[in-house]
Amino acid sequence: MILVSGATGYIGGRLIPRLIAAGHSVRALARDPRRVPPALRSLRGPEGARVELVAGDVLRPETLGPALAGVQVAYYLVHSMTTSAGDDFASRDRDAARNFAAACARAGVGRIIYLGGLGDPDAGLSEHLASRQETGAALRSGPVPVTELRAAIIVGAGSASFEIIRDLAAKLPVMVCPRWVRSRCEPIGITQVLDYLVGVLEEPRTVGDVFEIGGGEVVTYEEMMRQCGTEMGRRIWLVTVPVLTPRLSAYWLNLVTAVPMSLARPLVEGLRNDVVTQDQRIRSLIPVERMSYRDMVRHALAEEQAGPLASRWTRAVTAPAGVPARLGATELAYERVVPAPVPAEHLFAAVARIGGATGWYFADRLWRLRGGIDRLLGGVGMRRGRPHPTAVAVGDPIDFWRVEDVVPGELLRLRAEMRLPGEARLEFVIAPTAHGAVLVQRARFRPSGLGGWLYWYGLYPAHAVIFGGMARAIIRAAIRSGA
Question: Distance between CA 483 and CA 481 in Å, rounded?
Fold first, then answer.
């Protein structure tokens, strides 16, 4: 049995199908197994084997024992920077890795495989890159042998690093850039990363060692943006200046790309380091075809055009859901009940299409304005879209909301991830009636302090108009789809 932790993440979501296709029995670990994408839950291997889903939290060691029972090899693909961990992600990562290593030792796991970050530890690494290597050291603090692979930027459809470069090249014909654009990097394609992750499983000489993996071509970040632009048929000009601090650069990325400030800043700070492989022993042990950066970009762009992605960074990366309300805070609510002359399944289908390319059914300009304001405040804004145009699953990002619960045909509950003085949820409940169905729409808000109360009551009239118009438009869309 092989356990994959971080099953809802970008790498985990692509590694599991590879392991299943190779005939391995796979157990997927997630804090909330409902967030594992439906495509993984329904996956079947050559012998009919399916992915086993288990709940577990690496920050709560008592939850890991049942998940690791009977496991021979455990992949560790967890990263606190992708959650709302704030500035404390490095210490959380160390604690989580120690917990996991100790739990693996108690369960008799034979080996841990970890994907970390490339960089010279003697070159003054950024907090992000240093944390990736400290996590590997924390995993090795236990008796279970660890295979650590260290990689630089991973280029693939759905990876945060690639989407930053793609968005910059697509949207800015002229860029004023800091000096870090001339740092050297050896990017690696997602298929190459997966080849190495699966390859070390069958290569005993990789047990208990650290290896550096790269795509084979060394380029600067400036060259990466230019080449990506060329592949998209765009020519870009870059002007380098010495005055852009990491904070200003991260704020700029937050405004232009889909990556939120909480993720952009540690990534930007890591770009000042050269990340190039020095130890290339892995190439003789696991022969993986070298690939030019241009080829990586072509493959990523082609996959984006092909349809819904197998995995994307947005499923794992969450943003703070507003300012947390105190325990026991009052919940304010606005509810509207609207009858609909359509079957309940048609009404739910219209609700399930909300956001992304469909929009929010009513006052889309105001929704986009709210997304723009959120971006200016360092939030996620509206650029994340949604993973699939019609299907929804727990954990899916939908613009600046995230699916908190879904019952097909009956319920869709969204949790706000925009900047707010409190915690907000938007809920749609559908029930069949003798003449069709009824849509119950609820906006729920737990204010944080006086600012939260002022926010709710100040915008209450606007919310009443917007949510009322949305409910009526959803019903009209359901009628049209069933005509």
Answer: 6
pLDDT one-digit tens code per residue, 439-467? 999 999 999 889 999 999 998 888 889 98
| Residues in CB range of 456: below 8 A, 6 or more apart | 332, 422, 445, 447
Assign 272 a pLDDT band (cuts: 50, 70, 90): confident
Alpha-carbon separation of residue 15 from 47, 190, 290 (angstroms): 18, 10, 20
- Give the integer Cα–Cα distance in Å for 315 and 9: 6
> How far is Cα 351 from Cα 364, in angstroms, rounded to an integer?
15
Reported confidence tier of residue 329, pLDDT bands at 50, 70, 90: low
CA distance 373 to 254: 12
Does one domain contain both 336 and 232?
A: no
Residues 93, 134 contacting (CB under 8 angstroms):
yes
Whole-model pTM above 0.85? no
Domain region containing 368: 332-482
The answer on 12 and 121 residing in a single domain is yes
C-alpha span between 298 and 305 (Å, rounded): 11
- Do 126 and 96 share a structural domain? yes
In the chain, the number of structural domains is 2
Q: Which CATH number belongs to the domain containing residue 452 in this structure?
A: 3.30.530.20
Contact 300, 207 (CB under 8 A): no
Tell me the backbone φ, ψ of residue 295, rounded to 5 degrees. -65, -40
* Those residues with Cβ within 8 angstroms of residue 70's Cβ, 6 or more apart along the chain or in another chain: 1
**Is 284 inside any structural domain?**
yes
CA atoms within 13 A on the CB side of 184: 10
In this predicted structure, the answer to whether residue 470 has a pLDDT above a threshold of 90 is: yes
